[in-house]
Specification:
With 202 residues, the chain is of the alpha+beta class. The chain is built from 4 helices and 11 strands, in the order βαβββαββαββββαβ. The strands form 3 sheets. Strands 1, 2, 3, 4, 5, 10 and 11 form a 7-stranded antiparallel beta sheet that branches. A two-stranded antiparallel ribbon has the order 6-9. The mean pLDDT is 92.
């Protein structure tokens, strides 16, 4: 059985991470997630032992998206959300170890320079996987584009919605790319940091 998750995360994870419990409180206060009790507990929470959250230093409960988040969703996802919000779980995860968490699946795509569909070449060492390894050891590492001379940190490149990396994650399900980007914009506003988003297929 395949699994699909969407992740929202600070793009500049070399900077001090935002306060995730404070974000949780703002999401609840604003009605962007629903208090998790009774018929507002997502279906996923009933059969999930944590999955990605087992090694987190802090994690929230699994929430259902709330009605205040609806304007940030695509029309197609709004229709599914209106049918049953319990299919749209959201959980916050914080990782405070020395190295960032990497969330990738079989859909990992080679990165491009923003605005281009051509793979960013040449990558450090042998491939984009090696660049992920370099950023895992040093989140501030940069790749330089030989053509323009410009340098990019890893998440400043376009990974085509396929790589999540960092010390803070919001894990969701049921979102398409437009909806994930909408919620990333919302969370960016709430935290004051630029957010990225990705999809992982396992």
């Amino acid at each position: 059985m395949s699994e699909h998750h969407q992740f929202i995360f600070p793009r500049d994870f070399h900077l001090p991470p935002p306060n995730w419990p404070a974000l949780e409180a703002r999401l609840l206060e604003g009605g962007y997630v629903l208090p998790a009790h009774g018929d507002t507990i997502p279906y996923r929470a009933n059969n999930d032992d944590g999955f990605d959250g087992d090694d987190a230093s802090w994690r929230s409960v699994q929430y259902c998206l709330g009605p205040a988040a609806r304007p940030y969703l695509s029309d197609a996802v709004k229709e599914d959300y209106d049918a049953d919000p319990r299919h749209f779980p959201l959980m916050l995860l914080a990782f405070d170890g020395p190295n960032p968490r990497v969330m990738v699946g079989e859909n990992l795509f080679a990165p491009s320079v923003p605005g281009s569909n051509e793979p960013a070449m040449p990558m450090p060492a042998e491939s984009h996987i090696d660049f992920i390894g370099e950023a895992y050891e040093n989140p501030a590492v940069q790749w330089q584009c030989e053509e323009s001379g410009r340098s990019y940190r890893i998440l400043e490149l376009d990974w085509h919605y396929s790589l999540a990396m960092g010390f803070r994650m919001v894990q969701c399900e049921g979102l398409d790319r437009e909806s994930a980007e909408g919620l990333a914009g919302l969370i960016g506003e709430l935290t004051g940091q630029v957010m990225g988003c990705s999809h992982r297929h396992l």
